[in-house]
């Protein structure tokens, strides 16, 4: 199994990356000094959520370090993919942004010569979250790269990365993989039953990570089903307020579950480093350090809550997409989604409820409901209070303008 095995539905992108690796290795092997770039020293991987852009960047980094171009079995491949390779830095923020101090640390790492590998590789999985000041520091490093440093930036689309940075990167766009390709990966890699893999791939709409969670986690499937019941429950303003409150409380609880273990480990590690609790110890600046950690953890919890609500919005979108498809006759109510054929329902297990919703509203109303979901997503990204954003959305779904 090579490093490219899990990049399903990305044949064109993988072919491009393979050619770049071959070119880089030819130049590296033919140069006694090993200097210079045989390819672009900065890449921007883009693609919709779940398309595998960060996995593609990691695979590319591993292949650049591997003498065989990404065999997947050697130490270089395994450590590069896991983040243990000394010359591969993997960056993924759990906060809302990547600040200038973090970027400067990356720039310092990028300026160093490789310790054991062929290249010094920096993978930034959330390049769209780099602040303006951080982008200024990053731009200088990309404009004046060290001879054997490669920057691999990832973002949902090029427009979310500052123009001066993206203009200096080679763009590689990943497509949304097909349901069949995602299902095949779940069966092959994770041992998922074929029927469950087909359901998870269809429900996730090309998001590989989400499909894996749905396939392996019954609680995730249960939560998704509960979200898809919401449109049928919005019978009054009171019901809208209750639904919004329940969603926000659930997102807070989910965020706490996701971050609790990491938060506790960080607190214990910092307390031990500062000597807090040690008899007679009065570490200087201990309170400030603990306060800073608390702020970082709050930021992480805020992002986790927003991610949980964003997933709710995604699931609701699939509901109204199905409704609109039925109203416009764009999908066949009876078409088997697991077989060959034209466009089909994302949620065929709810076909009776979808048919009822389609008969009870117009395509124009459904489009306005979809617009309301997009507006709620923008509101959350703009730091509108989650409860206010969800209350507004529930009312809009109950009675679109």
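Q: What amino acid sequence fits the structure above?
A:
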């Amino acid at each position: 199994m090579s490093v490219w095995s899990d990049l399903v539905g990305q044949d064109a992108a993988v072919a491009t990356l393979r050619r770049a690796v071959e070119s880089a290795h030819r130049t590296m092997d033919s140069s006694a000094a090993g200097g210079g770039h045989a390819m672009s020293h900065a890449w921007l991987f883009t693609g919709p959520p779940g398309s595998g852009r960060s996995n593609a960047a990691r695979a590319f980094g591993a292949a650049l370090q591997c003498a065989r171009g990404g065999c997947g079995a050697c130490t270089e491949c395994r450590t590069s993919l896991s983040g243990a390779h000394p010359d591969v830095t993997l960056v993924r923020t759990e906060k809302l942004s990547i600040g200038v101090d973090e970027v400067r640390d990356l720039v310092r790492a990028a300026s160093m010569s490789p310790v054991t590998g062929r290249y010094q590789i920096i993978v930034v999985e959330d390049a769209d979250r780099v602040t303006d000041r951080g982008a200024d520091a990053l731009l200088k490093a990309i404009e004046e790269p060290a001879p054997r440093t490669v920057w691999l930036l990832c973002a949902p689309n090029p427009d979310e990365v500052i123009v001066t940075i993206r203009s200096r990167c080679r763009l590689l766009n990943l497509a949304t993989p097909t349901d069949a390709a995602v299902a095949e990966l779940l069966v092959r890699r994770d041992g998922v039953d074929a029927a469950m893999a087909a359901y998870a791939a269809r429900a996730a709409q090309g998001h590989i990570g989400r499909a894996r969670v749905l396939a392996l986690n019954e609680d995730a499937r249960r939560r998704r089903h509960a979200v898809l019941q919401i449109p049928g429950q919005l019978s009054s303003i009171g019901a809208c307020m209750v639904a919004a409150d329940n969603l926000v409380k659930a997102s807070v609880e989910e965020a706490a579950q996701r971050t609790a273990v990491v938060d506790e480990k960080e607190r214990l590690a910092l307390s031990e480093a500062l000597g807090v609790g040690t008899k007679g110890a009065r570490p200087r600046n201990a309170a400030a350090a603990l306060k800073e950690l608390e702020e970082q953890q709050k930021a992480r919890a805020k992002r986790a809550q927003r991610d949980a609500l964003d997933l709710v919005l995604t699931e609701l979108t699939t509901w109204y997409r199905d409704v609109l498809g039925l109203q416009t006759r764009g999908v066949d109510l009876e078409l088997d989604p697991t077989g060959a054929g034209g466009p089909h329902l994302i949620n065929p297990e709810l076909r009776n409820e979808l048919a009822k919703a389609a008969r009870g509203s117009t395509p124009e109303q459904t489009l306005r409901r979809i617009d309301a979901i997009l507006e709620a997503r923008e509101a959350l990204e703009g730091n509108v209070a989650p409860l206010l954003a969800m209350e507004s959305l529930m009312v809009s779904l109950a009675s679109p303008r």
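Q: And what stands out in the fold?
A: The CA atoms of residues 84 and 112 lie 17 Å apart.
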